[in-house]
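Q: Asparagine--tRNA ligase, please. Structure only.
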Amino acid sequence: MKTTISEVYKHAEKEVKIGAWIANKRSSGKIAFLQFRDGSGFIQGVVVKADVSEDVFQTAKTVTQESSVYVTGVVQKDERSPLGYELLVTGIEVLHHAVDYPITPKEHGTEFLMDNRHLWLRSRRQHAVMKIRNEIIRATYEFFNENGFSKVDPPILTGSAPEGTSELFATKYFDEDAYLSQSGQLYMEAAAMALGKVFSFGPTFRAEKSKTRRHLIEFWMIEPEMAFTEFDENLEVQEQYVAYIVQAVLKNCKLELKTLGRDTEKLEKITAPFPRITYDDAIVFLHEKGFDDIKWGDDFGAPHETAIAESYDKPVFITHYPTSLKPFYMQPDPNRDDVVLCADLIAPEGYGEIIGGSERIHDFELLKQRLEEHNLEMDAYKWYLELRQYGSVPHSGFGLGLERTVAWISGVEHVRESIPFPRLLNRLYP
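A: Structure for Asparagine--tRNA ligase:
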């Protein structure tokens, strides 16, 4: 019976055949222990010299790390195994004999591992992170599909920028300038006026020269937009969504979280609603914590966000930022024109902002005024302004950065481990 490692539980006490790679091995006289991986998981194979042919045992002793094989064996329960099962090997057929695999079980430096990212992905830890990433993506589609959202794909090449062009990658689009998208939001607003509730999921690009553990040049965003949705309703969707994906990972990635040594008690606390603190109150709080240098009107850096997040065991919304700090399209607070109806969602444990969102301006004249104040070309935003001319409604949306969210939920220190092939300030290889 041909199967996969993740499905061996269906074949207890039966002989199975698995296509796999040798992740590691050790031998002791008359017994050899092989660690097999097949993409779906890892399992230990035990080869007992007395129970197999001489050829099979010799193969077990000489097969090299990352050689590919077909292994046959009897599935046996084993409480000591993280998987709960091991394989009593009866046969090994080597498909390809790997030589001098560069990533050995010893310690390697980060730069070496990043240079060999195409191989590092095979390791047990990186495998666990990628499986958690996949579960977050699966649960994202499930959440929005179950809540009446339609998926819409905004363009990656754009002729204008939602937040200015200073951090965009420019390219030539035949005889005119174009940019790689830093957000699909403006297009998603148009889609929301057609379909009501929409979400996008795709790559975004920021030409930001930052080397922090929270930043990537290319990353993936989930960007919902909702018609007839005001500020507080927007926050409710955000907290429900984040709680949903965390609970999905807890339910479906137990083995991966264990592999990573993740403290799941912290994740179990992530249920809606989430706490909220205004920007004004956050400034007061930071002064009380000794951050005397920050003043009203300053943006928060990583130390400020971490200090605020440490006061809660759930993600926390920081709301009502100064108008001067935020993009042109955010709706002003009706009670004061110096702040906007926006919120950043800060993850616990020092992972920083994972969501930015707001109610969008729906008044034509106000949006036109904002565009002028930001010195943006009116012609480039003509279509965006027209959304406020033909049946404008209050609407809101947000963007969740997938990689920061993966890093937080899986507990890895650096966001570069949360994407298969990270693009960093000085890294475009492999």
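A: Brief note, in case it's useful. DSSP finds 13 helices and 18 strands in the chain.
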